[in-house]
Amino acid sequence: MPRTPTAALLALATLTSGCLPGGPGAVTASPVPGLEVSVDESFYEVAGLNARDLNHELSRRGPSHEGRSWQGQTDFRVAYSYSLERGADGCRAAEPRVRVGLVTTLPRWRDRDDAPERLRSDWDLYLSRLEEHEEGHRRIAILAGQELLEDVSALEAPDCEALRRTATEVAESYQKIVALEQKGWDEETAHGLDVGN
After folding, report:
1. Which of 173, 156, 106, 155 minimizes the C-alpha distance to 133?
2. Is 194 a domain residue?
3. Could you tell me if residue 113 is left (phi over 0), alpha (psi between -120 and 50 degrees) or otherwise beta?
4. pLDDT (tens place) for every residue of the chain, 197 residues total
5. CB neighbours (10 Å) of residue 56?
6. In a domain, 123, yes or no
7. Which of 29, 44, 136, 149 is most exposed, with the fewest beta carbons within 10 Å of its own?
């Protein structure tokens, strides 16, 4: 059966999940053949020796998305590719690959060592909850990548043009589903405030 090399490489989504108003990625090994995940972190600096100053810095310096400032944020991009395999019965997707690229932005407190013990303890709890919340956004994106890979792997059609159309429909469907799941995670956890409770 003849194969057409890389038939499609389409960006599925570039979505941002903002949480708590206010370098090159490392590719991780995936137990799923055909799935590649890269994870990166970026940081913004905040300063202050009391809670009021820290909250002000978090609101002022945090990443923004759609006109709002957030204290933590996870951006991700899911893309897929496949080859076309023509046969007597039609066309199918061969050698499917899905790439999930994740970048999480978190605050870094530069005055931590000089701050009172109580404030450091509060910060540590806050940061662990924020990190846990952003990890939830990463899990959603990676799971969507796995599910997309399964669906692309199963694509078959009477002809290759029909397969391409179906692949586009599948990708658009995943984009909507992932956006809803990310929004649901924010609502469920109150943008990270309820994580760990």
Report:
1. 106
2. no
3. alpha
4. 444 433 333 333 333 344 444 444 565 656 789 999 999 999 999 999 999 999 999 999 999 988 888 999 999 999 999 999 999 999 999 999 999 999 999 999 999 999 999 999 999 999 999 999 999 999 999 999 999 999 999 999 999 999 999 999 999 999 999 999 999 999 998 887 765 44
5. 15
6. yes
7. 29
> What is the torsional sign of CA 119, 122, 124, 129?
negative
Cα–Cα distance between 5 and 184 in angstroms, integer? 38
- Residue 25: phi and psi, rounded to 5, are -75, 145
pTM of this prediction exceeds 0.85: no
Is position 158 within any domain? Answer: yes
- Nearest to 175, CA basis, from 136, 137, 145, 139: 145
On whether residue 39 sits in a domain, the answer given is yes
- Measured over all CA atoms, what is the biggest interatomic distance in the chain, rounded to whole angstroms? 73
Eight-state DSSP code of residue 113: G
Query: Shortest CA distance to 41 belongs to which of 27, 23, 29?
Result: 23
Give the residue numbers spanning the domain of 132. 3-188
